[in-house]
Design a protein that fits this description.
The protein is an alpha+beta fold. 50% of the residues lie in helices and 17% in strands.
Amino acid sequence: MESFPLLSTVPPWSIFLLVVLIVISSFFSMSETVFSSLNPIRIKNYIEEGKKGSQRAFWIHERFDYALTTILVGNNLANVALATVSAGVFTRIFADSEVLVTIFNTVVMTTIILIFGEIIPKSFAKMYSNEIAIRISRPLMLIMKVLKPVTLVFLNIRKIFLKKDNRVTISVSENELETIIDTMEEEGSIDEEEAEMLQSVLDLDEKQVYEIMTPRVDMVAVEVNESLASIQKKFFENQFSRLPVYDGDRDNIVGILNERDFFTNIIQRLPINVRRIMKEPVFVSKSMRADTLIETLQRENSHLAIVSDEFGGTSGIVTMEDAIEELVGEIYDEHDDIDDEFLKQISHHEYGVNADIELGVLFKELNLGDAPDKEEKPLGSWLFEQFEDLPEVDMTHTIRQTMVSYDHEESTQVFDLTFIIKEIKERRIRYVHLEVTPVEVEEDA
């Protein structure tokens, strides 16, 4: 103490009390961060695993308002006591200068409280919130019981100024769940395929039947009085297990013909009456959601539905497979022709694109930012809308795509996207070439 003679005037118990109060302040600060950032789902898993202390931690989480009030009361009591004791310590050290007492008490104690009572414990609590919650749950519950009378007073005062909100609160919204899925993928908790499937489940209720159906123009159907040889040829050529049956006009669908029923009768040399062996059709609206379609087909024990338009006509057909593919991606069987050139790079800046690819998928695959049309539709349909006349081979459509960067170190990228029609079949765009040309832009000074 010879180098610091003034410290000899400070009782050891004062220094000890300061340390204890800093530890208490640190405990309450850590508790506040721990239970405000607690993952209740993980704590529930700990409870199921029988982890000691997890039930107490969940009990505190469920009563967070009560716990927070207790924590704030305890933290403020500790900080006030710290200020009082430290003032006494510095008064003994600088007995002749009230100014120095004030300066040192303010600067030194503020620094100590910030570092050891706030920054370090809260940072530590943020990193290990679930584990710490279990460890501190017992002492915190004890403190909550001890300070209950004081806590109740402050809770009642709060009720005077803040009315209780009886609205039902949603702990996790759909947008937040999408963010959680993206974060899990980035952190490696799930792989890209799993993330896409989870995202597809969330998006299923936004998909409508008209987005996934086979349109009427592509629909293969048989007429109820069509020859057996013609029907047999359609089954062989198209490899479909079911075909819609119409009477006179395709707007008048009267049934669904099952391949198995049809050929069973042929093999058994039984007389075939299409009206007698066809099944009752299921009709759905083109605005029906994809998840509702799955429920409807399950309920009706059907694999295929006829999509009706607002005028009572036929818009197309939709199958259970169409809806399931929205969840798991394209499903191929042994009869499907798999197109390996759905999206093929021709040169450094040119791509060959099957016009059936969804516009949003194309832009995502090529990292071109947001698609020009937020509505999910095939590239061919979108291109068709861009021309005033019927599209022809070698017709082009160019748009300028700006990809804004929010990083000040990266510049904004601008591209000219030129779509060149290469194949048209039955007035439908089938194949397109896409040229991606970077555009030089002048940076603002």
